[in-house]
Structures are given as C-alpha cells and as structure tokens.
UniProtKB/TrEMBL annotation:
Gene, per the UniProt record: LOC120050145
GO biological process, one term: DNA replication
SUPFAM superfamilies from the UniProt entry: Trypsin-like serine proteases
Name of one Pfam family that matches: Trypsin_2
Gene source species: Salvelinus namaycush
Low complexity compositional bias, start-end: 67-77
Protein name: Serine protease FAM111A-like isoform X5
Domain of life per record: Eukaryota
GO CC term, one of those recorded: nucleus
Region (Disordered) location: 66-90
Length: 535
C-alpha cells in the first residue's frame, strides 16, 4: 500500500477510511501500518498526519479486536460538516483506541485489559450533532466565512497569548522585579501579599486588616495589630528571608470610594527599615483590555509564586461564569452560593462600565495584594479577590484586580485632602522617573487646579517644586501652560477673590502671564489648544 496525494491535516485512519478500497470489516479489527522498505520495522500509529508520509510504502497488519473493545466505525453520512472548499474539511476523531509504539521500535503489544468508555457512542453522536452549530457560532463571532478561517484566527490568538512571556529577557526581568514583592502578615487577622511602591512604602489590600467584619485600623489611622513584611521568601529551606516590621501608623486605608464611584481596596504601609528593593511605582501603567498577564504573590503564606494567565474581557465574563457551571449539581450549588455571598462584587464586575480586570489564576487565598504585570513588565493592577468555593480543594470561578492607576489616583487625592506634603513630595519624585507615572503627576496637577481650594496651596507647591527639579519639567510646564490658557474656568479661578495664593503661584512659576492692559487681566495665547501631556 502506498500513501499518495496526502490531504493536509488528515490522519492515517481517516485517509484509509476514505480510500474506499477496504472492506468495512477491516475497521472492526485492530490494524497497524509497518514501513515495508525499511531495514528496521517502523510502526505508524493511526492518529499520525499523512502529510509526513507522502510516497512511502507500508504493510497493514491486522489482529482481531477484543470483544470488550469498541469498534472503529467508518464515517457516517451527515456526521461531518460538508466540505467548504477542496482543501478544507472538518473531521471528528473516530477512533476510541490508539496503538502504543515503544521507543526501540518494537511491535506494539496486545493490551490485556481494555476499558470501554460508558455511553461513548451516544456521547459521540451528541457531539457530532452540536459541532455544526458550534462552527456556525465561531464563524459569526470572528466574522469568518470558512471553518479554516476560524482555525487560523484561533491559532493566531493562541500564538499571541503564549508569546508574551516566552522571551527569556521578559522572564528574567520579572524575576528581578519580584524582589519588590513581599508577604504581609497581620498578626491574628490575616495574611496576604504586598509590594514596595516607592521609598519605603508598601501597597497591599485593605481587606487584610478586616476579620469578622471588624477593621483593625482605627479612625486615627493606627493599626491595632502587629504587621510584618517578609521579603525574599522563595527558597523552601528558608534561607535569605528578610522580615521587616511595619510602623503602627497606616499611611492610607481605603475600602471603597463612593464619591468617585469606583471600587478601591488598598492600604499603604510604612516599613520600619528601608528595604533595598526598588519600588514599582515608576513601572506603573494603565491596564490593557486584553492580553497576557503575570501575577507574583504568596498564596497560602507559602513561597513566592508566579502565575501566567490571560485577561478575560468584560463582555466575556458572563461566559466565564457559565463555563464553570453545568458539570454537576453539587458544583453548581457551590458556585452559585459563592456568587450570592459576593453579590456586590459580581454585580460590579458585570456592569458595562466596570474598570476592574478579570482573569483565571491559581493564586488564591494569601495572594491578595499581588502585583499584576503586563507583557512589558509594567505593573497594571493589584490582585484583589475572586469567587472561591471548596470542591476537592479550594477553587475559584474567576478572579479580579483593581487597576493600579485607580488606586494611585485615589491615594494622591487622599494625601492632598490630608495635606500630607511629605508623602506627596516622595511620591512625585519617584513617579517622575517613570514613563506612565509621569503622566499621572501631570493630571494630578490639573486636578488641583480644576478643583482648586486655598487648602490645596501647600500640596500644589510641594508637587510643583519637585517637578522643577526633574529634567523633564520644562516639557511639563509647556503643556500645562497650553492647557491652562484653553480652560476658561481655570482662568476665572485665578482671578477670583480669595484665590490670591493660586494667582501668585501662577505668576511666580510663569504658568500664566498677567497683563494690566488685557480686559480679562490674563494674557491669552492665540493658540486655543488643549494638549495632553506627552512624555
């Protein structure tokens, strides 16, 4: 027998079945192909693609199938989709058995005990019946006319999803940045993960300080439990671990921000000693809507772990929840119970304007507060929670993270309201060294001017004085001036009685040129532009 004119992606068994020269009884027996012209017998399994066997001669060896083995039936009419073109057809696997070949090329040995899958024929019939509708749905979703186009699209998407973290440089960079990740232990309350944000300040989740609906942080921002940050917990033998105590005064503690209409769950802690790791603020970035991400944390309080996963887009979150159900009644009950217990979170994630990032990760309890990196090793969000349930161990339906920029914006506003000039100065100095975090400072200054109050004077001065020491300050100044002269409300605030401090600040730093001859008492450029600050 000679294998000729192979059809791409066709298996040996399918090719023989379609050949038409073999009686149907042949396929009720176990058969193996042996290369006839080879010195050493080479055996070919039935699931091998024929495109690598072109122009080769084989002998067919038959042996009776055990009575308990399911027969391999030839394709039935209507069991497969019709050809979409001459080079593309859809085939379902037809065989329930496979032939094992040893590495030494010895003939396959008979299986003494064969196991038949219960109701496999009925299952296969159902799958064949559903496959055509499934392909039709895939064509519609990806706007493809042929099944081959769907396959090409899925292969391309899979290639993109696996390529992001396959480069050695990227993995090495993540390993380097993981030095900033630590395990947070709130004694008697909870355990989680955190990471060095800037200077000697740690970012983690606020819910780590809550147990039985009691917050272990009082109104004066005092932590009511001992807190430690453990760095370098990677080696199972415990070597190289560095434990640093956290100061009893918490810098910021926010669970929600009703005014901004955004969900936040974060705490900023101050270390007793300055850690040698580099803060990740300068690597902060807006979160993408799709793509691969990497989480680094301490699930279960164990050694530091990494998990690579893919973002689940907002419009596919409902599908992700449904995919976990329908397996068995008990699991459905556990999943639905978890959703009901976290109904507010579920509703938040399902909103059309939801800003949270969702994905599927194996990092569960203890990983809250883990940084989430994108494919460029930028920190884009902080892992916050999921929908856990117990079934043969702890599992979760879907997990979510809060965008880092949402956290940082809320943090800056809180430091502004509390007039914490020291923190604002340190934050600004570090943020100006990053590509995207620099843009964050620019928009924060705009926020100070748009929402101006006399109490903001110290915060505005502290931030701007720090900006002036940065090499890019002239560029930021240019864009601020362009923006200011295009904003009528800001110009009016400068001239408003009681805002002398703002007027003096603008004049001193040459952000607005004042003129006594101008009717509006403000010099305006002929260019009416509103430019976003570009790094």
């Amino acid at each position: 027998m000679k294998m000729t004119e192979p059809n791409d992606r066709m298996t040996v068994e399918t090719a023989l079945t379609r050949d038409g020269r073999f009686h149907d009884n042949v396929f009720i027996q176990t058969f193996t192909l042996v290369e006839s012209e080879s010195d050493q017998p080479r055996y070919v399994e039935m699931n091998v693609l024929v495109d690598c066997l072109d122009k080769q001669n084989f002998k067919m060896i038959l042996e009776e199938r055990n009575a308990t083995q399911a027969p391999t039936a030839p394709p039935q009419a209507g069991s497969n989709l019709q050809k979409e073109d001459e080079t593309n057809s859809i085939q379902l696997p037809m065989s329930n058995t496979s032939i094992e070949t040893s590495a030494a090329g010895e003939p396959p040995k008979k299986q003494k005990h064969s196991v038949t899958v219960p109701d496999s024929a009925e299952t296969l019939k159902i799958l064949r019946h559903q496959f055509a509708d499934f392909v039709k749905q895939m064509k519609k979703r990806y706007n493809k006319k042929k099944y081959s186009g769907v396959l090409s699209h899925l292969r391309g998407e899979f290639g993109k999803s696996t390529k992001g973290f396959s480069e050695v440089y990227t993995v090495k960079k993540l390993m380097e940045l993981s030095d900033s990740v630590c395990m947070i232990v709130v004694e008697g309350v909870g355990q989680g993960t955190g990471f060095l944000l800037f200077d000697h300040y740690i970012l983690t989740n606020a819910h780590l300080f809550i147990k039985d609906e009691i917050a272990y942080v009082d109104r004066n921002y005092q932590i009511l439990a001992k807190v430690t940050a453990t760095f370098n917990k990677e080696n199972p033998n415990g070597s190289g671990v560095k434990v640093i105590e956290v100061k009893p005064e918490i810098i910021d503690f926010q669970l929600t921000d009703v005014k901004c209409g955004r969900h936040v769950d974060f705490a900023v802690l101050e270390l007793q000693d300055v850690d040698t790791s580099t803060g990740l603020l300068c690597r902060s970035s807006p979160d993408p809507k799709t793509g691969r991400v990497c989480l680094i944390g301490h699930p279960g309080g164990g050694e530091k772990q990494m998990d690579f996963t893919t973002i689940i887009e907002r419009e596919r979150r409902g599908e992700a929840f449904r995919r976990e159900t329908g397996k068995n009644d008990r699991m459905d009950m556990l999943i639905n119970t978890s959703i009901e217990e976290n109904r507010e979170k579920y509703d938040m994630l399902m909103k059309p304007d939801s800003t949270e990032m969702t994905y599927d990760t194996c990092l569960f309890h203890g990983a809250s507060g883990s940084p989430v990196f994108d494919e460029s090793c930028q920190v884009i969000s902080m892992h916050t929670g999921g929908f856990p349930y117990e079934h043969e161990g702890v599992k979760s339906v879907i997990e979510y993270a809060i965008p880092l920029f949402t956290i940082l914006e809320n943090f800056l506003i809180e430091m502004m309201n509390r007039n914490n000039v020291e923190i604002l100065t340190k934050f600004t100095r570090e943020a100006l060294t990053g590509l995207h975090s620099r843009d964050l400072i620019y928009h924060f200054i705009r926020h100070l001017l748009e929402e101006w109050k006399p109490s903001f004077s110290a915060a505005l001065t502290a931030v701007w004085e720090t900006v002036k020491k940065n090499e890019n300050h002239l560029k930021m100044k240019k864009h601020l001036r362009t923006w200011i002269i295009s904003e009528k409300e800001v110009l009016e605030k400068i001239q408003k009685a009681g805002n002398e401090a703002l007027k003096e600040f603008m004049s001193k730093n040459d952000l607005v040129k004042l003129s006594q001859t101008d009717d509006d008492d403000v010099w305006l450029s002929n260019r009416r532009l509103c430019c976003k600050y570009i790094q």
